[in-house]
Amino acid sequence: MTPADLDRRYIWHPFTQMRDWNAPGHQPLVIVEGRGALLRTDDGRDYLDGNSSIWTNLHGHRRSEIDQAIRDQLGRIAHSSFLGLTNDVAVRLARELTEVTQLHEHKVFFSDDGSTAIEAALKMVHQARIQRGEKTRKAFVSLTSGYHGDTVGAMSAGHSAVFHAAYKTLLFESREVMSPACYRCPHNRAKPVRGSDARATRQCDWECAGELVSALDTLGEQASALVLEPRIQGAAGMTMHPRGYLEKAAAACCERGVWLVLDEVMTGFGRTGPMFAFQDEKITPDLVALAKGLTGGYLPVAATLASPEIFDAFLGGYAETFFHGHSYTGNALGCAAALANLGIFETDQTLQKNAVLAEKLTRLLAKFWDHPHVGDVRQEGLICGIEIVADFVSRRPFPIEERTGHRICHAARKHGLLTRPVGDVLVLMPPYCVTDDQLAQMTDALWRGLCEVLPP
User: In the chain, what are the domains?
Assistant: First the structure.
């Protein structure tokens, strides 16, 4: 049997309608090799990795420093329990994470992926409030269309009907407040302007921040924590927040004794420009969840960084222990990959190079504004979202069942690009090793796919 045959026989894929996947005539791409920004299939074709292997791969595939770090660690030990034991690799990584986040007093709790990092943060908040005698503070607040993962707690903290509607009866209640997403904000009085991100032309009175303040005041002593993705909500459609919102939100929380939980699973490690998105607005979160790019896209390692105020709430009797963990917590192999990944930021001056790449990407994206069905082109650093609409003036979307974004990305495959949309938002998130020519090829392939599905 071929790999594709074996797949159809044995595999259930995530976020995939398996009826369509296993339909006659569907031929899946079987990835067998990668190098730099390229992926190779079993039939020898090369594709550009246009979304960094679902937002995880930073410096490219088969990066020699990370490869070698994993080999070296394999020569010592791959894994040992972190329950009641420690290892020399995880402790060095924890120190590095407090340095690069500039959260020097925070403690690092390791887990496996973004969902588990958020899940740990939510449980830390809940238990810490109880152990601090703040038993009324049980309410979590989060943004419309927020997505923080697929474990039960992470789903509860989000408000993504597309992904989580089927599980509504499993979830605890959280307070939803409007997202500061300018393109479709009902309070934005500005008309759409071709060539301009909606954040740049918005006309409003910061009603989004006002709604958050109102919600926190209404909850009063019930409000426990605000959970949000700083600057960009990924699974919401790469909706990007105007500068200043995060600072306003953090100030509102601080004034009311509400803890700020930041989900930097996607936005962290240089994606938006600075090392972490929250660093652009000079705020100090109480908890930060990290994953995806932590190991450079090699191995599943995540971390939750907690403030001393939260950590100290667990320094009591045995019953006040944080009874939460994972079998692979502090995995030495993954931590070795993460240390090598962070080292590349230093040796390659990654953030400085990314700033140059981001400027080039901005220039390449300009042509998308010429297409009549492009409603908005949003970019933060090396994250881009191109929103496709049925009508530019009214911002009217295409019917969801037409899967326009999916068809455009599928058409772009013929031109050598692999990427995955979020609904009708086309996503480009190249690895940092991408060359100028490859970046141009990515945008050109996406443009061709767009024009084939929706002729201008």
Answer: 3-59+349-453 (3.90.1150.10), 68-347 (3.40.640.10)
